[in-house]
Design a protein that fits this description.
The chain is α/β, with parallel strands linked by helices. The protein has two domains: 197 residues, Rossmann fold, CATH 3.40.50.2000; 188 residues, Glycogen Phosphorylase B (Rossmann fold), CATH 3.40.50. Helices cover 47% and strands 14% of the residues. The two termini are 20 Å apart.
């Protein structure tokens, strides 16, 4: 079986993470071939192996131009490369695939009413319109594909309801412990200094670049309340971003969040670490007391798995996907309630027994996620599609 992955949209974020994790797993298998269609930047990162190839295509294009180009070029490449299965990884499918097509859909913003409302409140009219256009084609893509794969059952249910299409299955994304914990090099000096300066503080951690749907404002308002409830702990919130628009991907404006930090008197208590190399992140998680997230839109939430693998208790917004991923390793709060978030943090901090139970539960739960398991299930879906097509051909 030859699987063609259309990964041309995988230049950052979850798409890039997916290729980096799935390609090595496929390379260890001897029962199939895989080809990844990638852009020049990603093409230079990988070397073609015996059964996994990277086919570099074109130069940079806008998202709209790339989508139009892919509708013509990807089917031609599937025929030229003699693929048996096409896997479209960027939330958008090709309309007329010559082979069975699996769509990987993993963007909850197309569905989220909270996100649309947030954009209207912020008067982000261009982002609102752009999201609406993308959502239209994302919904059509579920119709065009033979089957759609979502990274969680919670998001799969949302997709089924949104599109009225039951050809959606859930396959959890994975987690590679060996990769995550494999780098023993220390954190950058500036990050080590920041941790040293907060040695006697309650360290709360949130891992994300800045965007609107991560709901930073609720975190900041909650920190102000936590400081009043636990003054002896001197709580600090550590961020793996900087609150400047130019330092973050996308078109999200971070300055209003930075203004809120100053208005709440938190300038010395919100620690902007900036981006941390992935393979060193485990050192940061292990140096913190709690992981907190107020996101109002998620499809899988990789940082929850990373935090749990490090034994860090989690306080998370009460989303179905968060409960699905973290289970008993987390406590939950309404996503726009800084007051209940603060209370949940205080509850965990004041109960070492509860924190230890959450830590043990998280370490155990994190072991349930595996990229090997993800690939096995994805290949199972591909084989089923080929068997169906072969049956119809008889």
């Amino acid at each position: 079986m030859h699987i063609l992955f259309n990964a041309l949209a995988a230049s950052s974020g979850s798409g890039l993470t997916y290729v980096r994790n799935v390609a090595p797993v496929l390379a260890r298998r001897g029962d199939l071939r895989a080809t990844f269609l990638v852009g020049p930047e990603l093409g230079r990162e990988f070397e073609t192996g015996s059964n996994v190839a990277f086919h570099e295509v074109g130069g940079s294009r806008s998202a709209a131009r790339r989508f139009i180009w892919e509708q013509i070029a990807v089917p031609r490449l599937a025929r030229k490369l003699k693929a048996d299965i096409l896997v479209s990884t960027g939330n958008l499918a090709v309309r007329w695939s010559p082979v069975p097509q699996i769509l990987l859909s993993g963007n909850s913003l197309y569905i989220s009413e909270d996100y649309r409302r947030d954009l209207r409140v912020r008067q982000e009219h261009r982002l609102w319109a752009d999201n609406g256009i993308r959502a239209f084609f994302a919904a059509r893509s579920v119709e065009w594909a033979d089957i759609t794969v979502a990274p969680s059952e919670a998001f799969a249910q949302d997709l089924r309801q949104w599109t009225q299409d039951n050809r959606v299955v859930a396959i959890h994304h994975g987690f590679d412990r060996e990769v995550f914990f494999g780098d023993e090099s220390p954190l950058p000096d500036a990050v080590q200094r920041a941790l040293h300066e907060t040695d006697n503080c309650l360290r709360l951690l949130f891992v994300s670049h800045f965007n609107y749907f991560r709901n930073f404002e609720t975190l900041f308002r909650s920190l102000s309340i936590i400081r009043a409830m636990l003054p002896e702990k001197n709580p600090k919130l550590l961020l793996t971003t900087r609150l400047r628009s130019a330092d973050n991907p996308g078109n999200f404006r971070a300055e209003s969040a930075a203004d809120l930090v100053r208005e709440l008197g938190l300038a010395e208590h919100v620690i902007e670490l900036g981006a941390i190399p992935y393979r060193q992140l485990h050192n940061l998680y292990q140096g913190c007391d709690l992981y907190v997230t107020a996101s109002y839109a998620e499809t899988f939430a990789h940082p929850l798995v990373e935090a749990m693998s490090c034994g860090v208790p989690v306080v998370a917004s009460d989303l179905p996907v968060h409960r699905e991923v973290a289970g008993q390793a987390a406590v939950y709060f309404p996503r726009f309630s800084p007051e209940i978030l603060a209370q949940q943090v205080c509850n965990v901090v004041s109960s070492p027994e509860q924190a230890q139970r959450m830590s043990r539960s998280g370490e155990q739960r994190a072991r349930d996620f595996s990229w090997e398991k993800h690939v096995d299930q994805l290949i199972g879906v591909a084989k089923e599609l080929l068997e169906r097509r072969a049956g119809r051909a008889k």
